[in-house]
Design goal:
heterodimer; A: 148 residues; mainly alpha; Rna Polymerase Sigma Factor, Chain: A; Arc Repressor Mutant, subunit A; 2 domains; B: 248 residues; alpha+beta; Immunoglobulin-like; eight-stranded antiparallel sheet; 6 helices; 8 strands; 43% helix; elongated
Chain lengths: 148, 248
């Protein structure tokens, strides 16, 4: 869990904070969990991801230090193609991701793995924000068709 | 796109929106509005769940990072702080059900119990990790605190992760309404800083947080009011003191 949070938050201390908050939220909302709607582990990760995203967006807003977290370099391990290579072959997602052009699949991975916004992805790859939005949207539609 | 305005969206648009939401690309007010729609619209909720299930494979590629030793105690402490309220709620729910059958049929309780079980298993796994970690840790610096009669009264251990703890070696008499306060002094011009307050001699973590920590740093225990020294400086009699040295 810390690994997932750290890919978004970059800093170890923030990642642990996200995990701590997530556990407390999980504890508080345990009764709200609906097994009809999904697996427990997916639910736990959804809470962790939500918490990490909130911390990420808040930090960016209030960051006063010289190195805003968004600009801290992501580790090479979090690079879209590295993530892609680690993706389990057994999963349908791997095969479906392979059908996308590498650049477009990269956009989807940057958003999910590093928690980047449309604007941040556009800035990082020097693409117009509208292009980023429509490519991600089209990638999602193709993925959904492939995943069924 | 305003997510509240496309109630008549095609399934394709709905799936794309659900995908953007799970990727974390729907933000601010749009996100709140969309979350309300997910509550109301089972098809949208199912799409979100399906994306989460598929994209979980990406989370599985994250490098596993062992928690730092302090994480688990912090989670435990935070949950312990909210536990009494939750327990009261559960008791109330039990009392509300008139018969055992009602209770048996109360899905809410079972669901909670099942999840609590699953959660306990996860927590246990993490806790176990923490315990193994603890067993491996050795102090890097030690200070033996001596009384005026040169009897060892306590030890201060500092660990590689920055944790510091005080372990008493003998019972220390604490007068009624008083407490033991632990101080550290690393620079005479700054003066001593309080790093812990305990009602009786017991093993306690010391809060050094941002304070410096090095060899030949003084730690001392004084007797102070139960709420701590009123001046922020040691005022009472010194029980024991000693300086840190590197552990071999």
């Amino acid at each position: 869990m810390i690994g997932v949070a750290q890919r978004m938050l970059k800093r170890r201390a923030l990642a642990e904070e996200a995990v701590q908050d997530a556990f407390v939220l999980i504890w508080r909302h345990a009764a709200r969990f609906d097994p009809q709607r999904g697996a427990g582990l997916t639910w736990i990760y959804a809470i962790l991801r939500n918490r990490s995203l909130s911390i990420l967006r808040d930090e960016k807003r209030t960051e006063t230090s010289d190195a805003p977290i968004g600009e801290e370099t992501a580790s090479e391990e979090d690079d879209p193609e590295t993530v892609m290579s680690k993706l389990s072959d057994a999963k349908a997602l791997h095969a479906c991701m392979e059908t996308l052009p590498p650049q477009r699949r990269g956009l989807v991975l940057l958003a999910f793995v590093q928690g980047l916004t449309h604007g941040e992805i556009a800035g990082k790859l020097a693409l117009p924000i509208g292009t980023v939005k429509s490519w991600i949207r089209r990638s999602l539609i193709s993925l959904k068709e492939c995943l069924g | 796109m305003n997510p509240s305005s496309d109630m008549n969206a095609t399934p394709q648009e709905r799936d794309a929106l659900a995908g953007e939401y799970v990727l974390g690309l729907v933000e601010g007010a749009d996100r709140t509005a969309l979350e309300q729609r997910i509550e109301r619209e089972p098809a949208l909720a199912a799409s979100v769940e399906s994306w989460r299930g598929h994209l979980a494979a990406i989370d599985a590629t994250a490098r596993p990072i062992p928690p730092s030793p302090g994480l688990w105690p912090r989670i435990e402490a935070e949950i312990a702080a909210i536990l009494p309220a939750a327990e009261r709620g559960r008791l109330k729910a039990l009392k509300a059900g008139n018969t055992l059958a009602d209770w048996w049929n109360n899905l809410f309780i079972w669901r909670g119990a099942a999840l609590a079980g699953a959660l306990a298993a996860i927590l246990l796994a993490i806790g176990l990790n923490g315990a193994l970690d603890r067993a491996k840790r050795q102090p890097v610096m030690v200070a033996v605190l001596l009384t005026e009669a040169s009897v060892a009264a306590a030890v201060v251990n500092t660990y590689p992760d920055g944790r510091v703890e005080m372990v008493p070696l003998q019972n220390i008499a604490v007068p009624e309404g008083k407490a033991l306060e632990i101080w550290t002094l690393w620079d005479r011009t700054v003066g001593p800083r309080s790093v812990g307050l305990i009602d009786r001699a017991r093993t306690t973590p010391l809060r050094l947080d941002q304070l410096p920590l090095g060899t030949n740093q003084l730690f001392e225990i004084t007797i102070e009011n139960a709420t701590g020294s009123p001046t922020g400086r040691p005022t009472g009699p010194i029980v024991a003191k000693g300086t840190t040295s590197q552990a071999l």
